[in-house]
Amino acid sequence: MIRVLALHNTPVELSSYDDYYVNVHMPLVRRIPGVRNIRYGRVIRAADGGPAPYFLISDVYFDDEAALQAALDSPEMADAFADVPNFATGGATIMICEAKDVSPLPDSH
């Protein structure tokens, strides 16, 4: 699998961020051809207990590089990318990453 990973900085306008992200941006992402899974969530804190380095992280998964390329060439992906500045007013870093599964870990109990 391959994924598009987005690291969102804290937005300038917090009050409308969640509503816009869920009700406007996510429907755009869901329309992208070849999307297999979408995950997102707010960053709670850094592992060392310090402040969160990002506000929200999202992952959009595709079967393989060919599926991602087809999505990148689609008007639906262009619409989703064009929408990012409408809510990610603090900026966002978007990267293409491998997505590897780790086999289930043994029960530690």
What is this structure's SSE topology?
Elements: E1 2-8, H1 17-30, E2 37-42, E3 56-62, H2 65-72, H3 75-87, E4 92-98
Antiparallel strand pairs: 1-3, 1-4, 2-3
Helix pairs in contact: 1-3
Keywords summarizing the entry:
4 strands; alpha+beta; flat; Alpha-Beta Plaits; 25% strand; four-stranded antiparallel beta sheet
In short:
It is built from three helices and four strands, in the order E-H-E-E-H-H-E.
Question: CATH architecture, please?
Answer: 2-Layer Sandwich
Neighbour order of strands in the largest sheet? 2-3-1-4
| Total of DSSP H or I helical runs spanning 4+ residues | 3
Largest sheet: 4 strands, antiparallel
- SSE succession: EHEEHHE
Arithmetic mean pLDDT: 92
CATH topology: Alpha-Beta Plaits
Describe this structure in words.
The structure is a single chain. With 109 residues, the chain is α+β, with helices and mostly antiparallel strands. The chain is 32% helix and 25% strand. Strands 2-3-1-4 form a 4-stranded antiparallel beta sheet. The longest helix is centred in the first third of the chain and has 14 residues, at 17-30.
